[in-house]
Amino acid sequence: MTAPRLLVLQPSQSDPLAKLGEWLEADGVELHLVSLKDEPAPENLDGYQGVICLGGEMGALDDLEHPWLADARRLLSSAVAKRLPTLAICLGAQLLAAATGGQVRKGPQGPEVGVLLVAKRDAAGTDPLFADLPFTPDVLQFHSDEVHLLPPGAEHLAASPKYPNQAFRVGTSAYGLQFHIETTPEIVLNWAAKDPESAACARPHHFDQDFLAEAHRDFEEVWQPFVARFAKLVRGELSPAGCLGTQLPLV
Fold first, then answer.
1. What average pLDDT does the chain have?
2. Looking at the domain covering 5-235, what would its CATH class be?
3. How much is the pTM?
4. 140 conformational bin, left if phi > 0, alpha if psi -120 to 50, beta if neither
5. Residues with Cβ < 8 Å from 148, sequence gap 6 or more?
């Protein structure tokens, strides 16, 4: 069987696929990376079995400075309509929300930065990707915008005290994660160097090399199996939410 092919939308060079790419390729998934600021986005999703949208320092509606954001929202909306497995991270989650009727804004409580916990919500208990996660998994936060209102009909999957809409699902298989699971310590330290004002909102030791290395070992233990489940969803080996006992054919 031909390997499933994912479209990867990368808004910023500062937030690459990193560990997420390693985990997906180890699961036999082919990745087609599009650097949105450097090359045109595809016209449609023909030939793709899923979509990933990564993070970036810009806002989800900053179209004047970054006109290609409209292309990202268009493709994410199309992925939901086609029921393609989709994983949207940080800015990607905000773009997914904005593309499907949600609202994004500057977070009124200021930046959320560091290695922090999120807590699963009730709907996560029956979700194909979230059900097997710990109740309060560790994640990496580095953002100041938020999904203020979830899209109509979206399932709320995880929350934090400061930013309630930490994870959600739109339709059967499009997931938004406000937090990061793909990073390496080097990527996080680069963000802190580029945005010291936001970094100052974290506890100081959160940018210690040893602390970050240990945190990323914990991330991998929890989130690599999550990504493996996403790969199974892409391959049609895992039933989407609300479709128990059925499998989606590969496109």
1. 95
2. alpha beta
3. 0.95
4. beta
5. 102, 103, 104, 105, 165
